[in-house]
Each structure stands twice: as structure tokens, then as C-alpha cells.
Write a structure and sequence with these properties.
Rossmann fold, 7-stranded parallel beta sheet, alpha/beta, binds uridine-diphosphate-N-acetylglucosamine, globular, 16 strands, binds nicotinamide-adenine-dinucleotide, 3-stranded mixed beta sheet
Length: about 350
């Protein structure tokens, strides 16, 4: 990583900077001496003193101030004001709604926020001559895998069964069209596999509102006593132990992937649109994750085998070689560190940021 004492030229605008991936990426950006401006509409943040609590804690963690504005990416005037106030060189775009289940209930809100909001952002970037974007995408754009491991050449958009997944795919397509229309636009789309864990300090982490949908936060809430037991969704998949297999990636590895993407996109030879998988290339079953968590926490995690969750697939894991060769990035942390850091965060903050 290009950390050093010298500040990088230009300001990195981080949308959705108060969120889980955003706040962990801001830590790495500040540690590597990037100037950062974070914006967020606070729709999925605990707030204190008018700022996401995650970013107050990032300030404690890094000893640096985080420049923050409450801005909604659907509001062009507010966005334009930020671009006029700061010399922004690149945008890392996290802001989005991200619940698969909710997206099937309120699809228009997902299209308005994720697709409409991104379109607005790109228009304001274009108007202000900022044409360098790192986008938060997801393995969900691959739909049902035709072959494993998933490489970046696997078709996208086919078999995206829910509105959330489609918004991730549509925004990638907008990025490709921008790069076709304007040769000076550059877009790196990072397709995350399953981000988990927390900063090793235990000061920031994932704080889902309500009942967690995802596996790791659910397990940790069982371990801390907030939930009675984990429901294991399906035990008859064609996998090593019948439970679903995923490619879990530690959140700080994921965050560092964004710095590598910034280095790539800032190199004069980089042109157009390119997607990269961010994963470890290894799959773990639900029961393997549960056992690793029990080991890391020293707590028993009660579970019941129940029916499959509609829409789930048996197995999903990445081929992460393109990021290795092109970004000089590899995920370094293993499942034990993912569980240890999740537990450290949960144990220090039983009620998250509140
Ligand atoms: P998050 O909800 O913790 O963070 C998103 C942030 O964006 C929140 O703080 C929210 O308040 C903000 N936001 C939402 N709509 C906004 C708007 N219109 N204007 C301004 N701010 C807005 O989610 P996350 O897990 O940090 O995810 C970040 C990005 O990564 C999302 O784009 C998500 O789709 C993508 N992603 C996440 C995962 C994952 O498992 N966490 C996996 C794949 C992709
Ligand atoms: C989910 C999203 C996906 C998103 C990803 C990362 C769905 C259908 N997909 O993927 O779009 O990109 O999160 O945020 O929501 N499991 C249980 N019990 C639980 C929760 C999960 O057994 O209480 C199992 C699931 O069946 C799956 C595995 O754990 O086999 C991982 O699930 P989860 O953490 O929700 O991630 P994905 O479904 O892979």
C-alpha cells in the first residue's frame, strides 16, 4: 500500500461513508494519507453530534478529522455544492440500500435510491470534470453461477432474481456506457463476495438494524445472547456438509482493495471500465463458519437446521486472481481472524453503535 507521510493529491469523495464498508475504507484511506470527504444521508447510520457514530469512532481510531456532510445522492444541488467546495479527484461510491428481502417489497425505492442516486452522482461528477469512479458492486451480479470459481468474465445480469441485485448490475452497465461515450471516464467496479468481520481494534464494525439477514452478524448476536439460536437455511445442498458455501472476506482486506483500485485507476495507462472480484477464492459452509466462531469466541452457538431460504444458491466463491495480478491485492485474513474480529467488536459493543 502506498502509505507514507506525503498527502496524495486531490480529495477522495466517499459516498455512504458512514456505513459498514465505507467507514472501514475511510480508516484505510486516512492511514494512507488520502484527503477524504465523506457524505451520507444517515438512512442506515447511528448518529451522534450530527455525524455517523462510525465516523466519530474513525476519528478516534486514526487521530484524524473526518470531513463529513449530510448529503443525499439523489439531491443534485447538494452534491454539486460538495464538488464546488472541494478539489475532488476520485469518487468511491458506497451509498446504496442493500437488503435483498426489503428490495422485493419496495422495489421502486431501491431503483430510485441505487440507480437514480448513482445516475445523479455521475451527472454531477461529469459536470464538474471528475471522471474517476470506484464502485461497490457485488457477486450478486453473477446471478446463479454457471461455473465455479466465478471469474470476472462470467455473464452478469442473467438470473439476478431480486431488485437489489439488479440495481448493482444496472449501475455497472451505466458505468460501462459512460466509459464508451467518454474516453476520459474511468470506472473500477469491485465485486465483493461476503464481507464480514470488523476493524481489529473492536472500535468499528457492522451494526445491522433490526434482525440481521446475514450469517455472521446473526451468529454473533446468538453468541452474545441477543438471539436464541441460528436457523441454518438448508442442510441438503450438494456441498461438503449440506449447508450453503460462501467466500467470506475480512472487511479490512476489502477496504484495502479500494486503495489498490484507486492506485490502479490513477495510473495513466488505465482506461475505461474494469471489474474485479474481491474475495479469498475459498468457500466455507455455514457449519464451518459456526464452528470457527465458537472457537474464536469460546461460546456455544445454538442452531437448528431449517428449510432452504428462497433465492439462495448452494455454493458461491471467487477466482480472485485478476485482483492479484492487476491490483497487486490479495485477501490476507482467514476465517479465524474474521470470527475473532467480529466477536471482539460484538463483545465490546453488545448494542453496536447505540
Ligand atoms: P451500509 O448500509 O452499512 O452503508 C451504506 C451507507 O449508504 C449507509 O450509511 C446509508 O446511510 C448510506 N446511504 C444509503 N442511501 C443513500 C443516499 N441516497 N444518499 C447518501 N447516503 C446513502 O452498507 P454496506 O454494507 O457498507 O454497503 C456499502 C456498499 O457495498 C453498498 O453499495 C452495497 O450494495 C455494497 N455491497 C455490500 C455488501 C455487504 O455484504 N455489506 C456486499 C456486496 C456489496
Ligand atoms: C447475501 C445477499 C447478497 C449480498 C451478500 C453480502 C441474499 C439472498 N443475498 O448473500 O445479495 O451480496 O449477502 O451482503 O440475501 N444463512 C443461514 N442462516 C442465517 C443467515 C444466512 O443459514 O440466518 C446462510 C445462507 O443460507 C447462506 C450463508 O449463510 O448459505 C450466507 O448467507 P448471507 O450472509 O445472507 O449471504 P448471502 O446469501 O451469500
Amino acid at each position: 500500500m502506498s502509505s507514507g507521510t506525503k498527502q496524495h493529491p486531490g480529495v477522495i469523495l466517499v459516498t455512504g461513508g458512514g456505513g459498514y464498508v465505507g467507514s472501514h475504507t475511510v480508516v484505510e484511506l486516512l492511514n494512507a494519507n488520502y484527503a477524504v470527504v465523506a457524505i451520507d444521508n444517515l438512512s442506515n447510520c447511528q448518529v451522534s453530534n450530527g455525524k455517523p457514530e462510525s465516523l466519530n469512532r474513525v476519528e478516534k481510531l486514526t487521530g484524524k478529522k473526518v470531513v463529513f456532510y449530510e448529503v443525499d445522492i439523489r439531491n443534485k444541488d447538494e452534491l454539486d455544492r460538495i464538488f464546488k467546495m472541494h478539489k475532488i479527484s476520485n469518487v468511491i461510491h458506497f451509498a446504496a440500500l442493500k437488503s435483498v428481502g426489503e428490495s422485493t417489497q419496495i422495489p421502486l425505492s431501491y431503483y430510485e435510491n441505487n440507480v437514480g442516486g448513482s445516475n445523479n452522482l455521475f451527472q454531477v461528477m461529469h459536470d464538474n470534470g471528475v471522471k474517476s469512479l470506484v464502485y461497490s458492486s457485488s457477486a450478486t451480479v453473477y446471478g446463479i453461477p454457471l461455473a465455479l470459481p466465478l471469474t470476472e468474465t462470467h455473464p452478469t445480469g442473467q438470473g439476478c432474481t431480486n431488485p437489489y441485485g439488479k440495481t448493482k448490475y444496472f449501475v455497472e452497465e451505466i458505468g460501462k456506457d459512460l466509459c464508451s461515450a467518454y474516453p476520459d471516464w474511468k470506472v473500477v467496479s469491485l465485486r465483493y463476495f461476503n464481507p464480514v468481520g470488523a476493524h481489529p481494534s473492536g472500535i468499528i464494525g457492522e451494526d445491522p438494524s433490526g434482525i440481521p439477514n446475514n450469517l455472521m452478524p446473526y451468529i454473533s448476536q446468538v453468541a452474545i445472547g441477543r438471539r436464541d439460536f441460528l436457523r441454518v437455511f438448508g442442510s441438503d445442498y450438494d456441498t461438503k456438509d449440506g449447508t450453503g458455501v460462501r467466500d467470506y472476506i475480512h472487511i479490512t482486506d476489502l477496504a484495502i482493495g479500494h486503495l489498490k483500485a484507486l492506485e490502479k485507476i490513477s495510473s495513466p495507462s488505465f482506461k475505461g471500465f474494469q471489474a474485479f472480484n474481491l474475495g479469498t477464492g475459498r468457500g466455507y459452509s455455514v457449519l464451518e463458519v459456526l464452528k470457527a466462531f465458537e472457537k474464536a469466541s469460546g461460546r456455544k452457538v445454538a442452531y437448528k437446521l431449517v428449510d432452504r431460504r428462497p433465492g439462495d444458491i448452494a455454493t458461491c466463491y471467487s477466482d480472485a486472481n485478476l485482483a492479484k495480478t492487476e491490483l497487486n491485492w490479495v485477501a490476507e485474513k482467514d476465517i479465524d481472524e474474521m470470527c475473532r474480529d467480529t466477536w471482539n467488536w460484538q463483545n465490546n459493543n453488545p448494542n453496536g453503535f447505540s
